[in-house]
Amino acid sequence: MDRNSNKYTFIYAVIMVVVVATILTFVAVSLQPFQKQNVELEKKKNILAAFNVESNPDNVESLYKEIIVDVFAINVEGDKLENVDAFNINLKDELRKPPAEQKWPVYVAKTQNGDIKYIFPLYGKGLWGPIWGYIAFYEDLNHVFGVYFDHKSETPGLGAEISTSEFQKLFIDKMIFDDNGNFVSIDLIKTDATDNNYAVDAISGGTITSHGVRDMLKTCLSAYLKFIENNKK
User: Are 200 and 192 in contact (CB under 8 A)?
Assistant: First the structure.
């Protein structure tokens, strides 16, 4: 075949496309187990972060097994669901469903002295994309033990501050129920929230992201209210 002909060029291009596509597919399939493992480890690391425990790739698995003593899913009525893989529930997908069909994960953690903490996942919308995180409560299911927030594309130095420890520490010991037992969630306000049990300081210059965190907390925690009512001490 004439190597200078259009026919040869076309056949050669087709063969190269097929070969390259086959190689890329093989590599992608081969790496899937490692990618899945990395995603799981990152998720466990974030859950531990809400529990105020720092971890790294070398110890995250062992710490998670030591601290997280139970994982299960509930419905909005607070009932425990059987035969549901709670760890792999995607809140983005659940929030698209009618409330009656939603499934919500619950992580139960235990401290070294035997105290129980509850950790709930969160998912919402920031300025430029999704935001997410975890919130841990004392056994009274009212006072915050710790939080972890992250984002996909919030503005560095502004909305992206939600992923800093300085911002996340503001939530510790805040409350989601007022003195009368009414659910108030946690607000983000522009005025000094130091002495406010139900609010933290909003991010300066990150108003929309702050509102996103506020709305995320209220929306997701509302789904756990029945469970909280049945289990708080």
Answer: no
